[in-house]
Amino acid sequence: MLEWIKKLLSQISTVWGKWTIIQKIIFAGILVGALMGLVLLFTVSSTPSMVPLLGVPITDQDTNDRIMLKLDEEGVSYKLNADGRIYVPDDKIARSMRSILIREDLIPSETDPWAIFDVERWTLTDFERDVNLRRAITASLEQHIKALADVDNAQVSLVMPEKTLFSSEQNPVTVSVIITPRPGSDISTSRPKVEGIVKLIQFAVEGLTEDNITILDYSGNILNDFEGLESIDRLELTSRMLKQKKSLEVQYTNTILGSLQNVFTPKRVNIVNIDIDLEFINKTISTEEHFPIVLREDDPTTPYSELDTVNSITLSRNDTSENFEGTGFNPEGPPGQEGQTAPAYKDMNNLVGKYESDSTTQNEVVNTRNIREEKSPFQIARISVAVAVDGIWSWDYDEKGKPILEKGRIKRLYTPVSDEDLAKAMTLVQHAVGFSNGRGDSVTVQHIPFDRTDEFKAEDSEWRRQQQIQQTMLYSIVALIILIAAFFVYRAIAKELERRRRLREEELARQHQALREQTLRQAEEEGIDVEMSVQERARMEMQENAKNMAREHPEDVANLIRTWMVEES
């Protein structure tokens, strides 16, 4: 044994000596990691296992503190994780503490009471299966009820008792529902909507009857107590009746106005009143008709009829005939004794009688048609219509075609509606509403002048406004023409004054130039040396150049003078 150990150690030392430094470091790291893993494994395995006190984390710090305070009072060791879950040493302590927390009302409201059954197990008991079934049905019902447009929230409580051997001892399945209606919803007063929820619950739970369903709102009012909804149903029926009555009255009003406004124009027709009395009924009529049996159809291509019918066909027939002739049977007593025949019948003894009877029983079959007719839920009991028709108002004009004014207002002429037109209008209204004397309908069409004071005031104001606009436009045109004429006159006078001023200036310049030239000539004749200014010399040179140009190019000078005169004019 020692030799084997020595041999093993020698082999290890030989291999260790052959390894490089990197291989030795890797081997040492692996050995250290394995030792640390073993130490951690032993440490964790030696730590006692703990179970959660509640199935959900507690987010409310106040509730969490009160639960931990209760655990401290009961002397239970616990551990609080970072996610808010509280752990206790074992399942027995957890069940005991849950009972205490329920008793002290320390269970958070958001805690699911069925969360204890969410723990994964290898096996399931029948009780747990029943609980899971109940939870699934409850969650499905809540989901379906919350999906309704009139429900904001719903809470369902389902009770499914254990099945018993005898049905007489079986407790019924019950369901209670608390719903929160959406704002503006009428589900609390709408019987059809509540009945829909009742049917939804009844068909979702096996063995549930309508009497064992209770639906409440958040105020505690029972919604499926339909005995208390009779007054609401009557109000709803009355509301539907009034809506139907209003709809028919609007329909008939449009029909009457449509038929009369095309004749008398819309402004001249007014429906004073239309009233329709309705009777709401719910009636089904079943009738049975018997008609002949057709043996041969009629040929429509021939001028005569080949139709052959019989009233009935014999299905069976029984004929019976009876014939009798003789004395019949007269009862007698025992031998040696007088018979017991009544005295009234003794005289009929030994008389010969004859009897005959014939009877026939015959079964006939006929064509039958069954008709089931649903009557309308309402029928018109009486119609009352009153229509007022206005005459024709027209303006009165003078000989020049201008409206005649009276006290600042336009004079108008009124043409009443003739009796013949009123009779025709009444006929149109009667046909439009389906007039019936049997129902006691009443239709009245009268000629009444409408009060059109405001309309006439508006027309007069509009006419005066148009007249003012026309006068304003006329005065504006005249003023514009005067302004234009004054402008042209002013322009002509200004040009004439400018022309005269220019001519005067030219005349003065010419006189000054002539006087200057004369002075120069006199000075030259007398031999006086006259000094001229720069401007005078430039003017003299310009005049000499102009004279020379006029002598050399007379046509150009003429065109220049002509252009200058056109521009000045």
How would you summarize this macromolecular structure in one to three sentences?
The chain is an alpha+beta fold and 569 residues long. It contains twelve helices and 19 strands.
What does it look like?
The chain is an alpha+beta fold. The chain has helices at 2-18, 21-46, 61-74, 91-103, 126-146, 191-204, 230-264, 343-346, 419-433, 453-526, 534-552, 554-568, and strands spanning 51-52, 79-80, 86-88, 151-159, 174-181, 213-217, 269-280, 284-291, 293-296, 308-310, 313-326, 353-365, 367-374, 378-389, 392-395, 405-406, 409-410, 412-415, 442-447. It has a three-stranded antiparallel sheet. Helix 6 links the parallel strand 5 and strand 6.
Please render the helix and strand layout as text.
Elements: H1 2-18, H2 21-46, E1 51-52, H3 61-74, E2 79-80, E3 86-88, H4 91-103, H5 126-146, E4 151-159, E5 174-181, H6 191-204, E6 213-217, H7 230-264, E7 269-280, E8 284-291, E9 293-296, E10 308-310, E11 313-326, H8 343-346, E12 353-365, E13 367-374, E14 378-389, E15 392-395, E16 405-406, E17 409-410, E18 412-415, H9 419-433, E19 442-447, H10 453-526, H11 534-552, H12 554-568
Parallel strand pairs: 5-6, 14-19
Antiparallel strand pairs: 1-3, 2-3, 4-5, 7-14, 8-13, 9-10, 11-12, 15-18, 16-17
Helix pairs in contact: 5-6, 7-9, 11-12
